[in-house]
Amino acid sequence: MRKLTWKWNISLILLAVVILLGATAGTYFWQIRLQKPLEVNMGQMHHMDGGAKHAHEGELAKEGVSEQAARSCKEITAGVSDAPVQEFRLTAAQTIQELDNGQSEKVWAFNGITPGPEIRVTEGDRVRVVLDNQDIQEGVTVHWHGIVLPCSQDGVAGVTQDAVKPGEQFIYEFVAVSPGTYWYHSHQASSEQVKKGLLGRFIVEPKKETFDYDQEESILLQQLNGTFLVNGSAKGWSVEAAPGEKLRLRVINAANDTFDMSVNGASYRIIALDGHDLNEPGMLDHHDFNIGAGQRYDLLLQMPEQGKVILASEAAGLKVIVGVGSEPLTRPERTVFTFANYGAPVPNDSVERFIFDQNLQIKLDQNLFINTINGQSFHEIPPMVVAEGENVKITITNAGGGDHPFHLHGHTFRVLSRNGQPLQGSPVYLDTLLTQQGETFEVYVKADNPGLWMMHCHNLMHASMGMSMMFNYEGISTPYRVGTKSGNLPDL
């Protein structure tokens, strides 16, 4: 009897293993199917059972809706103006890059180097960028991260344009309306192409400075094929600075990780987040700050009379050395910066009187191989559909799966609250919000830029595993398609 019971137990265990493996394999292949659909129109929706969903080819015709009746994203361009034109050329190509740690890396780069050339313009300039693809077989695009621009210029393969194939060219043109710290990267197979090096800094200088400083430096953090770099250096980045000088450091996180950054050797202020100035930012002394993927932090500091200032992420081995002289002391007791009560409120803040036209919910989570938004992944996630002019409140909850820096294209949103507590300090305007597990934020979006806009986790691996959806305006269409048929796979 014991022998039969033992055999029965073994059989049950083997059956359970087979069922588990079958379920795992089924989930995996379901995810691959969603990652690489045949063809999806990200701009066509119809309502079903009170919700919205993306229409696959043929569905719109069945519903009797005319795509021609909608306004095309392709037709939404920068209007004619007499603004000064600044023209740049970016050529995407495969190359070998010799790193300063002795490694040779096979990279995909703009103009032969990663990060690509810094693009620097002045507020109000008309920016024209000519993109050529030399030999990237999958095709490339350029997405202007954080820049508010017309839908047709957003650089998302299958939504705002087709990926640019080898030998092809695409010309981007838009007005740099908002000064600040931004960056650019390919949004075709973005999790792969950014990792391989297709990215760069984009700075819009203001016509009139809000803060006083003697010099500035742009610092781009990236992970190139697994190696962490600062402005392309594996050893660290040095900045010349004299005692007493005031410096602005524009820190850009172009990697997937969240970096815990420390500043030793001087007190500092965080004067801007995602390119947008903070009101009356206070001095920070024993504070680290966490910068999420896609985010930008602008720091203002004054050099000491003696010694260096070091900005670093010890866990990632990233270091920026400012000035010369003795090493700064590492402060033993540190607090993590939060914008929830930093700076000062503005008087007569109009946001307190807003009536919201829509209150929407986003729950970010993980399920086996996939990352989910409201329990669904990729193009199966119903889009948010808004009308131009609406005031939209979005509640974003991180329910699991690690840090999720959530990015909305084509807009700047204002953070209203964290974990149910309204912000007490300066108004905070972002395009990428770092959410950590257990956190809930409320944000306000003014629907004032008609188009079809992606919103996704900017840990691009999470986006490639399903955490990507659309923020679409009523009456906007696109002639482009996402999927293997067109070759446009923006989040792969």
From TrEMBL:
Pfam family name, one: Cu-oxidase_2
InterPro entries per the UniProt record, alphabetical: Cu-oxidase-like_N, Cu-oxidase_2nd, Cu-oxidase_C, Cu-oxidase_fam, Cu_oxidase_CS, Cu_oxidase_Cu_BS, Cupredoxin
Membrane in keyword set: no
All residue ranges annotated as the Plastocyanin-like domain in the record: 98-208, 226-305, 366-473
Keywords of the record: Metal-binding, Oxidoreductase
Residues annotated as signal peptide: none
Claim: Metal-binding is one of the keywords in the record: yes
SUPFAM superfamilies: Cupredoxins
Protein name per the record: Multicopper oxidase family protein
Organism: Paenibacillus agricola
